[in-house]
Amino acid sequence: MQTDSIIYHVTTQQEWLQAKEIGFYTAPSLAIEGFIHCSTKQQVKGVMERYFVGKTNLVELVIDTKKLTHELKYEIAPSINEAFPHIYGHINLSAVVEVKNISKVNSL
Predict the structure, then answer these.
(1) Domain segments of the chain: what residues?
(2) In angstroms, rounded to a whole number, what is the distance separating the alpha carbons of residues 39 and 45?
(3) 93: closest CA among 73, 66, 57, 68?
(4) Is 8:39 a contact under the CB 8 Å cutoff?
(5) Is 70 exposed, middle or buried (0-12, 13-18, 19+ CB in 10 A)?
(6) What DSSP designation does 53 have?
(7) For residues 54 and 84, what is the distance between their CA atoms, to the nearest angstrom?
(8) pLDDT at 1 over 50
(9) Are 64 and 3 in contact (CB under 8 A)?
(10) What 3-state DSSP class applies to 64?
(11) Rounded distance, CA 72 to CA 25, Å?
């Protein structure tokens, strides 16, 4: 069982600005899969390489799990057989302790 108190979520700058306007962050996966995909520090690089190569105007949300108002579960991603943190609800802005700009993801 994972116990990291800090997890990460990559999104676009535009989606983050929208979250600040409405008071919480959500992602399309919440409506489709029932949760928001996140990563541990060690998983971020792989996620970026799999899903964000060539994308620009991204931000990395640094999330304090102790401040989340919705349930957090670590679940296995069958495609790589690794447990990832999933948030079962929107992310309250008070749980986002830092926002890091990512200019462009290059293949590594």
Answers:
(1) 6-100
(2) 9
(3) 68
(4) yes
(5) middle
(6) T
(7) 23
(8) no
(9) no
(10) strand
(11) 15
Can you read off the two tokens belonging to residue 99? 């926002």
Distances (CA, A) of 48 to 74, 86, 107: 19, 17, 9
CA torsion through residues 5, 91, 51, 100, sign: negative
Model confidence, pTM: 0.90
Contact 38, 87 (CB under 8 A): yes
Structure tokens at 92: 């309250």
Residues composing the chain: 108
Digit-coded pLDDT (tens) for 48-62: 999 998 888 999 999
Name the CATH code of domain 6-100 (choices 1.10.3720.10, 3.40.50.150, 3.30.2290.10, 3.20.170.20).
Answer: 3.20.170.20
